[in-house]
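Following up on my earlier thread - several people asked me to post the actual chain instead of describing it. Fair enough. Here it is, all 90 residues.
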Amino acid sequence: MSLLRRARKNPADTTVTLIGKPGCHLCEDARAVILRVTAELGASFEEKDVLQDPALYEQYAEQIPVTLVDGRQHDFWRVDEARLRKALGA
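Reply from S.P.:
Thanks for posting it. Predicted structure:
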């Protein structure tokens, strides 16, 4: 085992952001996965409406739903639960 192995981050210190829009069925699917994982691991969850923010719309309109972990893009279109858990240190 490497002595340089990174310490795992506490999921409670992490924020998962879902960027989506109303009426988006992929956004609803992504929300369900994110809510389940964040509730279980204690991470924070926030949601942003791409239609309410011109900068988000310009950046992400073709990729929604977009998942960010601590402000960095993690996934788009679909949320892989195992991959999200790994990103949160689980």
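The chain has a mean pLDDT of 91. That should answer part of your original question.
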